[in-house]
UniProtKB/TrEMBL annotation:
Domain of life the protein comes from: Eukaryota
Official protein name in the record: Peptidase M48 domain-containing protein
Signal peptide start and end residues: none
Organism of this sequence: Thelephora terrestris
Cofactor(s) required, per the database record: Zn(2+)
Gene Ontology annotations for the cellular component aspect, listed alphabetically: mitochondrial inner membrane
Entries under Pfam families matching the protein: Peptidase_M48
A GO term for molecular function: metalloendopeptidase activity
Keyword Zinc among UniProt keywords: yes
All residue ranges annotated as the Peptidase M48 domain in the record: 190-348
Gene3D superfamilies: FAD/NAD(P)-binding domain, Metalloproteases ('zincins'), catalytic domain, NAD(P)-binding Rossmann-like Domain
Length: 866
């Protein structure tokens, strides 16, 4: 073997690339004894050791005339031409980034390497591998599964061998009583991945190649939380997605050829090795690392993890390296770029990643996962606060409670860490959309209130219901009014969690008796204090719902369910009795785009398909055909396969007499008039037929049709109230950058933040809101430790000694007269509602109205003072 080729092989053996830096050096485990490597070795060892350089014999008059070359030179020239042709024909583009590269390794080789590597890893880490049911393995597994799922990259293999191979039980501080989660998700890509979590706190590393992912427990503290670990895993998975190890195998051949050429040309071995290493191998390796950073950022954002966690994690990694003196700050000498260059590059991609995350449908289910990770790893460490924080949060919905609970968990209640979080809501009860938005037959969604109850037990958190901070009073007639200025002078920080409470209306369908916004229907069946009228479903056979989001499906489900199936839930008695009088037989859910563009999610569609006694109108197979250039997303494929299932079921369905529903695609309303002649319907809804343009927007085809109907419900989404502070009419929500509120000139307002739908618009499910709120809490605390110099002050910013618990005068008076509801009062009402529900017929709860609440609390007070 040529000396230089030997050196190159030893670098090829490095196999998978570690994330960040491997702080404890160890022999790389993968590809150690691959047969391919063996073949290379045999091939190269046939070269005589004595050959040092080659003499070119050409005609100096006509150097390019190959006929005049010596035979040896001709053979050499032929090899070079063939090699160049081979190289050029094996150039390809990395699909994710457009980078050109040489690749001559195929899928068969990769499959073989995946299997071999897996066995080697099991062997190497025998006795140190955490079992599959260990909470930490579960937590890492959940993150990997989510990243794979979100981008349809395949599934994690449930590896029973790990259980036996895990060896002697490891003393652990994580309690092991965790249920095994779901296996691979059907319908995902074909690739099978494997995960090994190695218990070695000294190794700060993770790596992946050929579908084998290895995580060392030493990296968990650096990852700090689930987002940080997702950043690491996204990066490692990205190496596999971009086939970096295969690329290294391929490029190694080029390096060997290049080195051979240099040696043949008589270059000193040391110089040749230097040139190939520093000009080709290391720069290529750093390119791969940066590429994995970008792809990984996209993958983790698509899986709904916080993109900002990636640069933060590399920052921490850089500090750790510096602390351990692990490397100089010079890229040139290393396989990995410096943490600084990575952070800089990642930050440039954050806006793109944020938008990927905002549009990701994969945020469902994150809440549970996030919490399980925190349970397994414990809360992250944070430096102490310099000054006390007194945070006023406007809005008592889930985003506000999540911000508050996150602040409480990040700032431990010690003598030096002073924090207060006061939540104000104009409604008398807490939990916003969880109480007044979630459909009654989705009780499991309301489980998040247990977490809010838990947070409210911390004396640093207070809730003040029935307090309207400077807004209109129509939706909360009983609330006391407090100007926002009263808060600005009493608190150091303000968080706007006021949500999106205004329904988007359709210009062609102004609200009327028979054309009502979906929010009114939702508020009717949740007993909202604004007390909207009951929809006239007792005079309607056909209901048209405009818009194809989850709210549309919630309403359709409630209208088509048998009242006896709803009786057990948190649905008021008067609503149930009105539903019992319903004459609705058919619901059409109308969308301006197609089945691949619907806004509802698979779970809600499945529930509608599974409603007893209700059938879906079958859809034509052509309607469900995919026409895009790229593959449909996993979410799209799920929806369409459910629609295919629903379309088939109709054929074997029981026939007439049942309630039915349909999805009407590519239809956009242009107007509605009372039916002039027909007695069978009340209204005529005009619909323009649409198609999709190049940007996937609905455009009219010119064709139209009329749909006879009795009741129209517009369900087109929501926006914030225009009277909300720092509202941006163009955006439909509060103007902000990453949760920091900005004024109309783009100045950051010091200590003013916004979270949840008030900051993003009405999108995403509850888990999306939770993650957004957690990010805002994190930002608020980071700013409190390192204030932004250019921010504009609108708040007092400081609290005087001993005034941490002081409240605005209006609130104090409201508390004295019991107009303001505290969390303790709410818990009493909560108990009473539950008691009333149980007493009725074992239903979930029977909701109270404000006048009942007032009476109940007064009675309770009288009783207590006796
Ligand atoms: P959404 O998801 O934004 O859906 C709005 C629908 O209205 C879309 O189909 C949209 O179509 C359509 N639309 C908007 N403007 C239109 C126009 N001018 N003409 C015709 N169609 C129009 O809104 P949502 O259903 O109110 O839900 C809001 C958020 O709450 C969503 O994130 C949702 O997932 C969440 N939510 C979740 C649940 C649950 O998890 N069960 C329940 C309720 C709500 P285009 O796509 O063509 O714009």
């Amino acid at each position: 073997m040529l000396p230089i080729a030997r050196g190159l092989f030893s670098s090829l053996r490095a196999g998978p690339r570690p994330s960040g830096r491997l702080l404890k050096l160890r022999p790389p485990p993968i590809a150690k004894s691959s047969s391919a490597l063996g073949q290379f070795r045999q091939f190269s060892s046939t070269r005589p050791k004595s050959a040092r350089y080659f003499r070119f014999e050409v005609d100096p008059e006509q150097p390019l005339n190959y006929r005049r070359w010596s035979t040896g030179t001709q053979v050499f020239g032929g090899i070079v031409v063939l090699s160049v042709a081979y190289y050029v024909t094996h150039l390809e583009t990395v699909p994710e980034t457009g980078r050109r590269r040489f690749m001559d390794v195929g899928p068969k080789f990769e499959t073989m390497m995946a299997e071999q590597s897996h066995h080697q890893l099991l062997e190497e880490f025998r006795g140190k591998i955490l079992p599959p049911d260990h909470p930490l393995t579960q937590a890492v597994r959940d993150i990997v599964t989510r990243i794979l799922d979100a981008s349809n990259l395949g599934s994690l293999k449930a590896d029973s061998t790990l259980k036996q191979q895990a060896g002697t039980p490891i003393e652990d501080s994580w309690h092991a009583d965790v249920q095994t989660r779901e296996g691979p998700v059907p319908g995902s890509g074909q690739r099978e991945w494997r995960l090994i979590v190695v218990h070695d706190p000294k190794i700060v590393n993770a790596m992946a190649s050929f579908g084998n992912i290895v995580v060392f427990t030493g990296i968990i503290p650096v990852a700090r939380d689930e987002d940080g670990l997702a950043a690491i895993l996204g990066h490692e998975i990205a190496h596999v997605v971009a086939r970096h190890t295969s690329e290294r195998y391929s490029s190694m051949k080029v390096l060997i050829a290049f080195a051979t050429l240099l040696e043949v040309l008589g270059l000193d071995v040391g110089v040749a090795r230097f040139l190939t290493t520093y000009l080709l191998e290391l720069p290529n390796s750093r390119t791969q690392e940066l590429e994995a950073d970008v792809i990984g950022l996209r993958l983790s954002a698509k899986a709904c993890y916080n993109p900002e966690a990636a640069p933060e994690m590399f920052n921490r990694m850089g500090k750790l390296e510096q602390a351990q003196g692990a490397r100089l700050n010079v890229d040139f000498l290393y396989t990995h770029p410096t943490s600084e260059s990575r952070v800089k590059m990642l930050e440039a991609f954050i806006p793109e990643a944020r938008s990927i995350r905002a549009n990701s449908s994969m945020c469902i289910g994150m809440q549970e996962q996030f919490e399980s990770f925190q349970e397994a790893t414990g809360p992250p460490d944070h430096p102490a606060l310099m000054n006390p924080l007194k945070v006023a949060i406007i809005g008592g919905g889930p985003s506000s409670f999540y911000v508050a609970s996150r602040l409480l968990s990040l700032v431990p209640p010690t003598g030096t860490q002073q924090l207060r979080a006061h939540i104000y809501d104009r409604l008398w009860s807490p939990h916003g959309l969880v109480r007044y938005g979630v459909a009654p037959d989705h009780p499991e969604v309301k489980n998040c209130t247990h977490k809010f109850d838990q947070a409210a037990q911390d004396p640093r958190l207070k809730f003040f219901g029935n307090v309207n901070i400077g807004g209109p009073t129509t939706s909360s007639p009983s609330a006391i009014s407090v100007p926002i200025e009263s808060l600005l002078s009493k608190y150091t920080h303000l968080v706007l969690g006021t949500g999106c409470t205004i329904p988007v209306l359709h210009s062609a369908l102004p609200p009327s008796e028979r054309c009502i916004p979906a929010l009114e229907v939702v508020h009717w069946y949740t007993n909202h204090p604004s007390k909207p009228k009951a929809p006239p479903i007792d005079e309607a056979q056909h209901v048209s719902i405009i818009g194809q989001g989850n709210v549309s499906l919630d309403i359709a489900r409630i209208l088509l369910s048998r009242p006896e199936d709803l009786k057990q839930y948190d649905i008021p008695e008067r609503v149930l009795s009105h539903l019992a009088k319903s004459t609705v037989k058919r619901v059409s859910i109308i969308g301006r785009r197609g089945p691949y563009e619907v806004a509802f999610t698979a779970k809600e569609l499945r529930e509608l398909l599974d409603l007893p006694g209700v059938v879906m109108d079958p859809l034509q197979p052509e309607m469900l055909q995919w026409r895009g250039d790229m593959k449909p997303t996993r979410q799209q494929s799920r929806i369409v396969s459910l629609l295919e299932r629903g379309s088939k079921e109709k054929a074997k369905g029981p026939g007439d007499g049942f309630k039915s529903w349909s999805l009407e695609f590519f239809r956009s309303p242009t107007g509605v008039v009372p039916t002039p002649h027909s007695v069978s319907s009340n209204l005529e809804l005009s619909l323009a037929h649409t198609t999709l343009d190049a940007k996937n927007k609905a455009v009219p085809t010119g064709a139209t049709s009329i749909l006879p109907t009795d009741l129209i419900i517009t369900s087109l989404g929501h926006r914030s109230e225009p009277t909300a502070h720092w509202y941006d009419p163009g955006l439909g929500h509060v103007r902000n950058v990453s949760g920091r509120v900005i004024d109309e000139r783009g100045n950051v307002l010091k200590n003013v933040y916004t979270s949840g739908w008030a900051s993003t618009g009405a999108k995403g499910v509850l888990a999306t809101t939770m993650m957004n709120a957690y990010d805002v809490a994190q930002t608020l605390l980071s700013d409190a430790r390192e204030p932004m110099p250019e921010a504009r002050a609108v708040m007092n910013g400081k609290v005087e000694e001993g005034t941490l618990d002081e409240l605005p005068d209006e609130v104090k008076r409201g508390l004295e007269t019991s107009r303001v509801i505290t969390y303790e009062s709410w818990k009493r009402i909560d108990e009473e509602e539950t008691r009333r529900g149980t007493a009725l017929r074992g239903k979930e709860r029977e909701r109270m109205e404000w006048n009942e609440v007032e009476r109940y609390l007064q009675d309770a007070q009288r009783f207590n003072s006796r």
